[in-house]
Design a protein that fits this description.
Blueprint: E1 13-17, H1 22-33, E2 37-42, H2 45-52, E3 59-63, H3 71-80, E4 88-91, H4 106-134, E5 138-142, H5 155-175, E6 181-187, H6 194-197, H7 202-214, H8 224-235, E7 246-249
Parallel strand pairs: 1-2, 1-4, 2-3, 4-5, 5-6, 6-7
Helix pairs in contact: 1-8, 3-4, 4-5
Length: about 260
């Protein structure tokens, strides 16, 4: 009597928002290098195509704005057309619109809240069936190591990231019965285009970077690949007993 062969294990499915540049791009490539099928979500097709280059088709670009009313449903529908499973969901998309309290612009406040806080909530909701189907889903939120401190001039950004950490802890408890883990990675100063995207001048970006370096004990900015490493480690089966945590990857800034 022959023993039936076990089916080959399926490749993990990963979905990452804000995957066109910086941390999102590095994370997409890192998961793909581990053999995952990665859905790279972002607003701009061009950068997403660059993220997918050289990955042997393991990275699938998906140009959708997660803040639009139908964005989460469109993403969930595209994923479901290929697979019922989602093993890892990374909420990386985020924007900064720095301003003092007296100068807050309502549109900028709404944009930060919608991108940094509301979009992760509604996208996770839309993808819950796929996360449950994997029987070991992982949700990873990218926050910031500075959200527990006063951040004058960027108070709304810090507040949205603090809110995302609160969601991390609440979802970790709420989704545990479904076998879904929820964690956050809190980067410090990282070499990404986020300063350019918020419209800062070169001089202003240099001043911000100097302040960050002065408050980072290791004396340098991080690389996107270092944040991607933390994301892949938290998503790994070796971290199967880890949930509800916020992992600061910031060169010691949060403890200085």
């Amino acid at each position: 009597m022959t023993t039936p062969e076990k089916p080959a294990p399926r490749a993990r499915t990963v979905l990452i928002t804000g995957a066109g540049t910086g941390i999102g791009r590095s994370a997409a490539r890192a998961f793909a290098a581990e053999g995952a099928r990665v859905w790279a979500v972002g607003r701009r097709p061009g950068p997403l195509a660059e993220t997918a280059e050289g990955t042997g088709g393991r990275v699938v670009p998906l140009a959708v704005d997660v803040t639009t009313p139908d964005g989460p449903a469109r993403i969930a529908s595209a994923l479901a057309a290929e697979t019922p499973y989602l093993d890892v969901l990374v909420h990386n998309a985020g924007i900064v619109r720095s301003a003092a309290l007296a100068d807050l612009d309502p549109a900028a406040v709404r944009a930060q809240t919608e991108t940094n806080l509301l979009a992760p909530a509604f996208l996770t909701q839309a993808l819950l069936p796929s996360l449950r189907a994997s029987r070991a889903g992982v949700v990873l939120n990218v926050t910031t190591s500075a959200d527990g401190r006063a951040w004058p001039g960027s108070s709304v950004y810090a507040a949205t990231k603090a809110g995302l950490e609160s969601l991390t802890r609440s979802w970790a408890v709420e989704l545990a019965p479904h076998g879904i883990r929820v964690c956050a990675v809190a980067p410090g100063a990282v070499d990404t285009p986020i300063g350019e995207h918020q419209g800062l001048s070169a001089e202003r970006r240099e001043a911000v970077r100097a302040w960050q370096l002065a408050h980072t004990p290791l004396g340098r900015v991080g690389r996107p690949e270092e944040i991607a490493w933390a994301l892949t480690r938290l998503a790994g089966c070796e971290a199967g007993f880890v949930t509800g945590v916020v992992w600061a990857v910031d060169g010691g800034a949060v403890v200085a």
